[in-house]
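Retro notes, structure queue

What went well: the backlog is down to a handful. What didn't: a couple of records were mislabeled last round, so from now on we paste the full input next to the output in the thread. Example, using Voltage-dependent ion-selective channel from Rhizoclosmatium globosum:
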Amino acid sequence: MAIPPSYSDFSKDINDLFNKDYPLGASKLEVNSTTTNGFKVTVNNVKDNVSGKITSDLKTKYTDRENGFVFTNTWHAGNALTAQLELQDLISTGFKLDLHGAMHPALGTTAAKAGIELKQQNVFARSSVDLLAKNGATVHTDVVVGSEGLLLAGDVAYNTADATIHRYNVAVGYKTPEYSLAFHATKKFTHFTAGYFHNINRGLQVASRATWDQTTANQVGIEVGTKYALDNATFVKAKIDNYGRLGLGYTQQVQPTIKLQLGGSFDTTRLSENVHKIGFAFIVDA
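Corresponding output:
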């Protein structure tokens, strides 16, 4: 293992199988356009199938790979602006500086965050601080270390104003090219998740996940899911939990630049009631 995943990607293969490619309860149109000099424009439009409300945003991203420079600017339809500047390998190889700002002119609110990231063999560490927080700056830090497939991770948030730890999480995992295991203890050790992912072959993946939140329920939630490739351009996904909730997803690369996704969530214990969700996404890459 050269560089372990970041803390947010610790269980990415498991989470992607359960959460990705299920466009539920909404109709989405995404259009991406990329120039040869590293300039990308993305337009997102999402319509809620129940309320009919449409949310949109326009994102521009410029990437200079040679100099390790990335600038991203997003303008939301609600007149909110966000901007992010990333400087890769600024001091040494694997060191990144990340500056993030947000502004909502109508509400008169602003936010700013500065962060650093270090990627070295067997270590992935990040730390950031809220620069404009009214209740004192909060320092967010997470570290992942790995060796021979074994992964250990920790995540903590410390508020400088009241000198208290607002958040702490830990994770343990084991990852190989064929399968991975992950265990998370989050929300100050009140929420526990254990997951398993198996890449059986090129066209078939399966996963299972168990979740227990001791503050809300005594029952453990258990999910099983799978992804099956019908051909090189099409795959289907399915998942079900012990509460009887069934999720189905269908993704097809219609053309090299056009992708269609269909998704549905169905409560099999209440099939005659209006509690189900369906949706679709249409993604264009130009």
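Agreed that this is the format going forward. Reviewer comment attached to the example: The chain has a mean pLDDT of 93.
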